Amino acid sequence: MKKYFVGGDVGGTKTHVVIADEHGHLAGFGQSSGGNHETVGYDGLARAVGEAFNEAVVSADLSIDQIAGAGFGIGGYDWNSQRKDHLRAIATLGLQAPVEIVNDAILGLLAGSESGWGVAVVSGTGCNCWGWNRERKRTGRVTGMGTLMGEGAGASELIHKAVQMVSHEWTKRGPATALTPAFIRFAGAENLEDLIEGYCTGRYDLGSAAAPLVFIAAEAGDEVARSLVRWAGTELGELVNAVIRQLDLESLEFDVIMIGSMFQNGSLLTKPMLETIQAVAVGAHLKGLTAPPVTGGLLLAMEVAGLKPDASIRTALFHSTSQLK
Questions:
Q1: What is the distance, to the nearest Å, from the Cα of residue 207 to the centroid of all Cα atoms in its chain?
Q2: What b-and-e string marks burial along 56-72, b requiring 16 or more CB atoms within 10 Å of the CB?
Q3: How far is CA 163 from CA 169, 220, 234, in A?
Q4: Containing H/E element for 297?
Q5: Nearest 5 degrees, angle CA 168-CA 197-CA 39?
Q6: What fold, for 4-107+291-324?
Q7: In this structure, are residues 18 and 31 in contact, taking their beta carbons and an 8 Å threshold?
């Protein structure tokens, strides 16, 4: 009987579940809403995964007893103390096969690095950084709590800093910046004072969606915007360096997998990030994630079932799941 494997990517806004056979060919796909327990609770996690899983099983036209292994990357799974509750939620699927769960950043590492170890850095709406050592016996990570723990920089943290610079222009504490008229237009404010008042009182929202404006201004040469992008790149590099030191990777050659929309903005961000990283680990190489993160869930599922995916299986998986991007 042909064996099948389940991979899941559970995030704050969406849940993807895929099923592939032992040769790496996609058999089924399902999706549902976000399942991060921090926002929907563990019942919500179970519901989101269950809906996506059932859809995938139906589309694959197979029975649960044909599934040989399952791997899930779960946003919000940050501490070992949460493992039992997360596994309890996954257990509602009724799987009889072995199951493994990891933080969702690890999925990107599995999908992005052929060696299956190194560091994954996430910069989307928020930011995070996790890694595995070469033997995959040790995990390195940051808190993923953003500004609260002094960690940046996702789009939210970048805008937090950018609004401060615009406020400094208004109070004459800092120089004028092209971000000011850009943010005024974005918010629909009348002028700078109205923008600052509206932001402080909650009338105007300048969230992560405004982040592209910082890169546009930086590309046009605005020094305040350029300094903010350099800060973001350096800060992301420092997150990676923290994980490098935890795992003693300084003298090794390894991949740093970049995950998230912020990395679509090119070298203004990645150049200072790479310089910061290579000051600690000269053998670190930046690599963009080209496969959907859920592909890492399938690789994890195969490994937990005792199947070591070779190059042909990885190639087939990446080809099969590329349509999901």
A1: 18
A2: bbeebebeeebbbbbbb
A3: 10, 19, 19
A4: helix 294-304
A5: 95
A6: Nucleotidyltransferase; domain 5 (3.30.420)
A7: no
Per-residue pLDDT tens over the stretch 58-105? 999 999 999 999 999 999 999 999 999 999 999 999 999 999 999 999
Q: In this structure, are residues 155 and 208 in contact, taking their beta carbons and an 8 Å threshold?
A: yes
CA atoms within 13 A of residue 155's CA, in its CB half-sphere: 19
Q: Amino acid identity, residue 302?
A: M
Domain ranges of the chain: 4-107+291-324
Residue linked to tokens 């099948």: 4
The pTM score is: 0.91
Strands (E), the chain: 4-10, 14-21, 26-33, 67-74, 99-103, 118-123, 127-132, 139-141, 254-259, 284-288
Enclosing H/E stretch for 111: helix 104-112
234, 268 in Cβ contact below 8 A? no
CA-to-CA distance for 143 and 150, rounded, in angstroms?
10
> pLDDT above 70 covers what percent of the chain?
99
| Cis preceding linkage at 225, omega within 30 | no
